[in-house]
């Protein structure tokens, strides 16, 4: 990546020395530039402010933010790349077989990515489909009785007992835990289980006896009990969308593959390829 940047920068300097002029600052006006305002040029190719905005919108967030902070330099690099491409076309490099093959591969990659996004968009279930699935599979969205707890894990039981003793002596829960550098509070929601069974016997605000596990020793403080309930449609929607869109995407992909191999003339002579592999050189 670094070599490519250096090469483009070096070629850009050569072109500038050969007569390609860098964009000159526009005269100061009282009105801000509109999206139709031309802000850069490379030969006959012009770039409006709207073009630049669209270019930026195609970048992933971290790169877009970086480009926006150095917008003039970003636009200069954009224009220089276009000027270099124009120079390559002038030299008819785009007609060389190897270059044409690489261009075709790049075009294929862009088109396949666009097709994948289109299939993903088509696979997204409608609100009506989401509701129908929710109502048909209601049992899937029933949540068991749960508890919300503060859980603290420490390496040894004496440390857990020390925290409990500090709390029993009147110290607040958080400072008692923070006094131990290797202990931290994690808020979690659990159904009934071997470790969490102790939490179901607590009253809100009460701290459990040390709970020994293979990963360490836990203390649990109960926040509240959550009764068994049905997850709301709103809460279940992301799960349903993920499940149905995955199913729909697989179905659409299979249909597309079958159509391409039957009606689009796609074929592979596996017999000749196998013979080519086995044939001696």
State the major sheet: 4 strands, antiparallel
Residue-averaged pLDDT, rounded? 86
Order of helices and strands: HEEHHHHHEEHHEHEEEHH
Broad shape? elongated
Number of strands: 8
What percent of residues adopt helix (DSSP H or I)?
A: 40-55%
Structure description:
- By secondary structure, this protein is α+β, with helices and mostly antiparallel strands.
- It has helices spanning 2-17, 49-57, 61-69, 71-90, 97-123, 127-136, 157-168, 173-178, 197-200, 233-263, 270-278; strands at 38-42, 45-48, 142-143, 146-154, 185-191, 211-213, 216-226, 229-230.
- The strands form three sheets. The chain has a four-stranded antiparallel sheet.
- A hairpin with a 2-residue loop joins strand 1 and strand 2.
- Helix 6 crosses helix 10 (233-263).
- The longest helix has 31 residues, at 233-263.
- The two termini are 38 Å apart.
- Residues 1-6, 13-23 and 26-30 have low confidence and may be disordered.
